[in-house]
Write a structure and sequence with these properties.
By secondary structure, the chain is an alpha+beta fold. It has 13 helices and 18 strands. About 40% of the residues lie in helices and about 20% in strands.
Length: about 425
């Protein structure tokens, strides 16, 4: 396909601007927005985008588990489709753009092709994926893994939403959805029917702001080694009466493990490793903690991420060995609890080259960078679907009400993506 005319790009940007405004108004939950997984806000967002897709004369459908599918038909319906999209849920009181930007921009690209009078050779499939934010249900990439039949079959009946305590199946039933495909391990989308998958997304860190760039091409998505429910268990005792040699201080043991991990991280980083480590929760038992008591229980979480799967495996083994060593020295037991691991995902080199070439043609400056956050794109890449991500600049970080996305940067993203997607569509 030849270049898409400027008026078509302008129509795409106008649609994106309108949709972002409508999403913000419909899902406002001051001080931010809330679109809970399989909740009212997520459903409201899907309804807004489905209406916009119908206005563009796209084919609109929702599958059994709630994935929104919006299709610009190609001339040859037998060809594998080019898919785009992201998730529509958010964290509580989050921002308007995390996830939603990928679905909105996918629709905007369909609008640009319509405005240019193009009917591509193959379908453009825009996906509004359910339940990516694992703050609601403790499972990574829940919606995209369910789409491909990759969730544990018991998930509908064992996964409970953290704010309600109700099961995934219960929340699906609220919206007339059917968990049967998950229970059967049945895929609702065949990876072989996808020519490529592209996920536009806001950057969730400060790199593009620091570099003064509107967009970045993602090289890969870091895998994660996560222990959200870890515990160190010792014994409660008097803070003043027990000598060090007799203490079983869970807090000190947990802190020692975190300090050892930090030192290990510094060593590996100095050796050039791609690695980030976080202890997001460090909490003594609120029923017992006080300034005059030795803590007998520490709850903590660990989140370790890298592009290197072998490094994550090595660090997991080191972590358990170090916990055993510290525990033996301090009379404390460590229980890491159930893990929620996700494999690293590399982005397709051919798609990355296509995005880079179109950025040069559009005069849009870009950089290449890894994604520290997880994304549904990793599920597609893990199944062998050629996959790519384009980050858009976001001045205020993510998962907070101050998420920001300048429409000029959306325009820059469209200037790269529209011709790239048009080329993929044939």
């Amino acid at each position: 396909m030849s270049a898409v005319p400027d008026h078509a790009l302008a129509e795409a940007l106008a649609l994106a601007t309108d949709l972002f405004d409508r999403l913000a108004a419909a899902t406002a939950d001051p001080p931010g927005i809330t679109r809970a997984s399989y909740g009212e806000g997520e459903a409201a967002a899907q309804a807004i985008l489905a209406d916009a897709a119908r206005a563009l004369d796209l084919e609109v459908a929702t599958d059994a588990i709630g994935t929104l599918r919006m299709t610009l038909p190609g001339r040859d319906r037998g060809l594998p489709a080019v898919a785009m999209g992201s998730h529509l849920d958010s964290v509580p009181h989050g921002g308007n753009f995390d996830g939603a930007a990928g679905v909105v921009i996918g629709l905007a690209i369909a609008a640009a092709l319509r405005a240019a009078g193009r009917r591509p050779a193959r379908d453009l499939l825009v996906l509004g994926i359910r339940a990516e934010e694992m703050c609601w249900f403790p499972a990574h990439y829940l919606g995209s893994r369910a789409l491909f039949g990759l969730l544990p079959r018991a998930a509908p009946d064992t996964l409970r939403r953290v704010d309600t305590g109700r099961t995934l199946a219960d929340h699906m039933a609220d919206h007339g959805l059917d968990p049967t495909p998950i229970r059967e391990g049945r895929a609702l989308l065949d990876p072989a029917r996808l020519h490529a998958f592209i996920e536009p997304h806001i950057e969730q860190g400060p790199v593009l702001v620091e570099d003064g760039l509107p967009v970045a091409i993602v090289t890969g998505i870091r895998g994660s080694l996560r222990y959200p429910l870890a515990r160190a268990t010792g014994a409660h005792a008097h803070a003043g009466a027990v000598p060090r040699r007799h203490r079983r201080d869970a807090a000190m043991a947990g802190v020692a493990l975190v300090a050892a991990l930090d030192a290990r991280w510094a060593t590996l980083e100095a050796q050039g490793a791609d690695l980030v480590c976080t202890a997001g929760i460090l909490a003594t038992d609120p029923d017992h903690h006080t300034s005059t008591k030795i803590p007998g229980l520490l709850r903590f979480s660990l989140d370790i991420r890298s592009l290197d799967a072998a490094l994550l495996a090595d660090l997991d083994a080191w972590l358990h060995a170090e916990a055993a060593r510290i525990g033996a020295a301090r009379g404390v037991g460590f229980d890491f609890g159930p893990p929620t691991h996700a494999a690293p995902a590399s982005m397709d080199p051919t798609l990355r080259a296509l995005l880079a070439r179109q950025a040069v043609a559009a005069g849009v400056p870009v950089r290449q960078m890894a994604s520290g956050a997880g994304h549904d794109c990793a599920t597609f890449a893990g199944l062998g679907v050629p996959s790519a991500m384009l980050f858009l600049r976001n001045p205020h970080g993510s998962h907070n009400p101050q998420e920001a996305l300048a429409m000029a940067d959306v325009g820059a993203g469209l200037a790269v993506l529209v011709p790239a997607v048009a080329e993929l569509l044939g």
